[in-house]
Amino acid sequence: MADPKGFLNHGREVARTRPVEERVKDWNEVYVPGSLLPIISQQASRCMDCGIPFCHNGCPLGNLIPEWNDYAYREDWTAASERLHATNNFPEFTGRLCPAPCESACVLGINQQPVTIKNVEVSIIDKAWEAGGVAPQIPERLSGKTVAVIGSGPSGLAAAQQLTRAGHTVAVYERADRIGGLLRYGIPEFKMEKRHINRRIEQMRAEGTRFRTGVEIGRDISASDLRKRYDAVVLAVGATTARDLPVPGRELKGIYQAMEYLPLANKVQEGDYVTSPISAEGKHVVVIGGGDTGADCVGTAHRQGAASVTQLEIMPRPNEERNPVSQPWPTFPILYKVTSAHEEGGERIYSASTTHFEGDEDGNVQWLHLTEVEFVDGKLTPKPGTERKIPAQLVTLAMGFTGTDRDNGLVEQLGLELDARGNIARDADFQTNVPGVFVAGDAGRGQSLIVWAIAEGRSAARGVDRYLTGASDLPAPIRPTDRALAV
């Protein structure tokens, strides 16, 4: 193990963020470059090497956390990187974006602050890239089998890389103009600079994966035609049907889904626009939805120069610490979080429900009317006398997603069956009701975390490999029915 007394001798330290007044003026990642390495060995030493490492259960990838913590403590970065990559194709993504259910399940977290697992992870992979230790893994032989992966988010990329390394010829189809899915256009630059995606794509190209951008299966190429071209197809198309807000005034100009707003800001960073066609500059911004996507909208609005930013959440404000009765260790608790975007300003209003929008004579939204809500007999109910309005010249809806896209015809063209939640149904091998067609990620699971998406891609790849060859040595960290550890 690492230092047997590490957790006794050292407290938890996390990556330092740049000053707010500095970082809101640019789109670079919020953390101070290089601030982790001086402390990361000490932080890794806090890992207890417990007899039953519950962090493995918290992480759907089954990351070998105590092992790479030990290597990081000893500053054996090569061995740490090898252990990290043994279970995770893209640790630089999860190390920056995952909410770390592994830390919620850390045994040390029973009565102390848990190990900074995410920070150790990202330090290892950044050190590996810096040292040139992340090389293409080119297959020794080709199988002669072809696979199409539709979608280039984390699940699609993980499936594609696993299948390419197994010797199959893989082509990834992406309807956007660049590879990366929501990693590219849904995650703001200040949370993850896109250079991290770009170098993984180059690694995958060197391994033999092919990429086709600007092609939407179902519209540009029929799904049935694609199925005839390839020996197998993996659907990693996500759950992109956004939940809407059907209240009076929804039709007013200036009200957008989060995934209409955020991609344009990212396209500015890619050089496609000088300024975003949907900008918060000088406007009173309201973000409806209290999750991570809502926080991304908040941080984006700050950087665009919003006059004010207000985030609404219909649920009550969560506790700041785990409730040992309702959310016992090692479950993943719902806690009050202050993200980097929230540190930068704005107001957060909980237990609030939008009743309607009010516009000006030109049809532009100007006000949002809301009311406080409370639970009555288990249902959220408006509180009489709490109605009020707040200024709203730009509104973003960040209320989650309800299922995979049905508009492009892909589901119908393949004749896919859906489950009760509107997700694409699959069997234990991640195969749909159509032989040779598999599904991975949010399209089959529903809206979930990046770490689950990568685990899905790896597991679906095993199902595809077994379908094509009769057997597979590829790992399958999860089953389609597995869910996060929760109450």
From TrEMBL:
Catalytic class of the enzyme: oxidoreductase
Pathway(s) served: Amino-acid biosynthesis; L-glutamate biosynthesis via GLT pathway; L-glutamate from 2-oxoglutarate and L-glutamine (NADP(+) route): step 1/1
Enzyme Commission numbers on file: 1.4.1.13
Domain of life: Bacteria
Matches recorded under InterPro entries: 4Fe4S_Fe-S-bd, DPD_II, FAD/NAD-bd_sf, FAD/NAD-binding_dom, Glut_synth_ssu1, Glutamate_Synthase, Helical_ferredxn
SUPFAM superfamilies registered for this protein in UniProt: alpha-helical ferredoxin (SSF46548), Nucleotide-binding domain (SSF51971)
Domain annotation 4Fe-4S ferredoxin-type: ranges: 38-69
Cofactor: [4Fe-4S] cluster
Iron as UniProt keyword: yes
Pfam families per UniProt: Fer4_20, Pyr_redox_2
Gene3D superfamilies given in the database record: Alpha-helical ferredoxin, FAD/NAD(P)-binding domain
Reaction it catalyzes: 2 L-glutamate + NADP(+) = L-glutamine + 2-oxoglutarate + NADPH + H(+)
NCBIfam families attached to this UniProt entry: GOGAT_sm_gam
Designated name of the protein: Glutamate synthase [NADPH] small chain
